[in-house]
Structures are given as structure tokens and as C-alpha cells.
User: What shape does this take?
Amino acid sequence: MQLKFTQEEMTQIGHRIQNARVASKLTQAQLAERCECSEKHLGDIERGVASVSFPLVVRIGKALNTGVDYYLAESSDYYADILIDVELSETLRGCDKETRMLIRDTAKRIAEYDKRIRNLKK
Assistant: This one.
């Protein structure tokens, strides 16, 4: 199923795919292999010169741990948290249990502090 996009939409989708790929520290060749498409086609999509099919955007989303809506939404601002979560998850993956628990506890304290500061500003 080929999706119909304007040139501007194709460029936006391509940039979102490229940004998510770079955030995941993957090359075009690595992502193309995971998504079962050619590196040239993926490059064309990222540059906005080729449209992406629905099955391919689903495979890209799975390979980059993002939802299809991240690439197809009007604005990716709402989905910036997804990329942060992916990056944090990858960072934590290399840590032992004790370190992950320390990071979790530190993050909770920072979140509590942020909440108190926001309440004071109200």
C-alpha cells in the first residue's frame, strides 16, 4: 500500500526517519537491512525524494522502537519523548542492576524536585 504524500510531507517524514535512525546510532545500511529494503531506497526516503509504503514505515518503526504515528503525524514535537525513552533504554541496557536502580532513584528525586519547583511557580 503506497501512501500519498505532498513533497513537503515526504521531506518531513524523511527527516523524522533520519533523526530517529541517528538517535538509535544506526547507519542507513544497518536500518535498511533490518527493514528489508535497499540502502538507496532508504536514503531516498530520508531525503524526501521517494515516498514510503505503509508496510515499510511499520518495519522502520519496529526497527527504531517508535510508532508509525511518529513518522506520519503532523508534528513530531509530541513524540520527542519517544526518542528520549529509546536513548535512555539503550543507555541503561549496558548497566548492571545496581547501577540501573541508582539511576532510577536519582531520576525520581529529580522529578520530585521539578514538580515542587513547578508548583512554586503557580
Q: What stands out?
A: The chain has a mean pLDDT of 87. Residues 97-121 form the longest helix (25 residues). Helices lie at 7-23, 28-35, 39-47, 54-63, 68-72, 80-93, 97-121. The chain has one domain: 7-121.
